[in-house]
Write a structure and sequence with these properties.
Layout lengths: L6 E3 L5 E3 L15 H12 L2 H16 L3 H4 L4 H28 L27 H29 L12 H25 L3 H12 L14 H8 L4 H4 L4 H12 L2 H4 L5 E4 L3 E4 L3 H9 L11 H5 L7 H25 L1
Antiparallel strand pairs: 1-2, 3-4
The structure holds zinc ion (2 copies).
């Protein structure tokens, strides 16, 4: 496919789509009903439907009977861990193999023209972004992911947390299923904002930001403290009346859903003349510019807080003005304290 029909490439080989990044037409004033109807299918397909189905599959085939989960035992815990590891390798690996190892579409639609494997760097373990990112996901990401999963399932099995059934409260549970992505967005925005404060950024979040040119394995490349805060999103399901399937969906939304934002390509080609939009641009711009786009754009939180960057020249100018103002504020503070 000719990606230059949809965007431009600069001298360095970096691609930028013509269409600025947009936030979902939710919570906008005045309401935009037509845009909302047009946008709605993308709320479900393909990712959210896939993550919900994966939660159902886990509940049906992976999670043991409730009586077993009342007691913590290595058998079922290790089985969950092993299945999570395999699922992550298959799901993340599918993007990695096609786009980064086989490089099936070269750098067409690729935001950063270079591939991480071609740029060894001292900031990474073994100087390799891929090895570093993969190991961080496996060594702390997946154990913490599984620990939250096990803890919440154990709690449900022991009647801690308001477990309600689909038979008794179908409407509430459908509403809750629909707002799982909203819960994720608000939780992620909050923790992300907090770990961008100077001290926590230095100690915790800079690990994730080492990947300025993110690829699929970057999704779970975090400091363990960030893994902990990130996967804690499942805990809302011990406070709200919920159900283990929706709790699993919340966790899968975080764990499997991190990939699309780090895929590094604006569109993923399917066949000769079709391509799936990745919606990765908002988070790519966060990795590139750091202090913009703390959220993923489902709710216009960054617009409300003045930190949204849509990738356009205007967006760039707004960001630069904000950085200048911040610098001036810091300098004024220094002068008064001196
Ligand atoms: Zn990221
Ligand atoms: Zn960040």
């Amino acid at each position: 496919m000719d990606d230059l029909q949809f965007g431009t490439r600069n001298k360095r080989g970096d691609y930028a789509p013509n269409e600025p990044a947009g936030t979902a037409p939710l919570f906008v004033w005045p309401p935009r009903p037509l845009a909302l109807i047009k946008w709605l299918p993308s709320y479900f397909l393909p990712y959210n439907a896939l993550f919900f189905l994966s939660a159902l599959a886990w509940w049906a085939w992976v999670v043991p009977p409730v009586a077993v989960m009342q007691t913590l035992a290595w058998g079922w815990v290790l089985k969950l861990f092993a299945v999570n590891v395999v699922a992550v390798i298959v799901w993340y690996g599918a993007f990695e193999v096609q786009l980064y190892i086989r490089r099936r579409q070269g750098n067409r639609f690729k935001y950063n023209g270079k591939f991480p494997a071609d740029a060894p760097s001292d900031v990474f373990w073994f100087k390799s972004q891929n090895i570093d990112n993969f190991l961080r996901g496996m060594l702390s990401g997946l154990p913490i992911w599984t620990a939250f999963q096990v803890g919440v399932l154990w709690a449900y099995a022991n009647e801690i947390g308001p477990w309600v059934s689909f038979a008794d409260h179908p409407i509430w549970l459908v509403v809750l299923a629909l707002i799982v992505p909203v819960i994720h967005e608000v939780h992620f925005f909050l923790i992300h904002r907090i770990i961008h404060t100077p001290l926590l950024y230095k100690w915790v979040h800079s690990v994730h930001h080492n990947s300025v040119n993110p690829s699929p394995w970057s999704s779970l490349s975090m400091h363990p403290v960030e893994h902990f805060a990130y996967f804690a999103t499942i805990l809302y399901h011990l406070v709200l009346p919920s159900n283990p399937i929706l709790a699993l969906y919340q966790l899968h939304y975080a764990g499997f859903g991190a990939v699309p934002g780090h895929v590094g390509f604006d569109r993923i080609e399917i066949g000769e003349d079709r391509a799936l939009e990745s919606h990765a641009y908002i988070h790519y711009l966060h990795h590139k510019h750091f202090e913009v786009n703390y959220g993923d754009g489902l709710i216009p939180l960054d617009r409300w807080f003045g930190t949204f960057h849509d990738g356009s020249k205007d967006g760039q100018a707004r960001m630069n003005a904000r950085y200048q103002a911040k610098k001036a504020r810091l300098n004024a503070k220094k002068e008064t304290s001196a």
